[in-house]
Amino acid sequence: MTVTALLQAVAVVLAIEGLLYALAPGAMRRALATLLAAPEERLRTGGLVAAAIGIAVAWALRGAA
């Protein structure tokens, strides 16, 4: 993976997140409130699972290219 590809991926994530806030600000507020109320261990576990899935998908796409 090149630095350019990594930056493009970050740009796509920012664009999607921005669209979510633009299209459904109320839902995003509720999601953030839920995150604030969640225990740290649950957030940590969720973050690790999301990171593992992201790495697996990136690895699979790398092999498919």
From TrEMBL:
The chain crosses the membrane at residues 43-61. Pfam families: DUF2065 (PF09838). Keywords: Membrane, Transmembrane, Transmembrane helix. This is DUF2065 domain-containing protein.
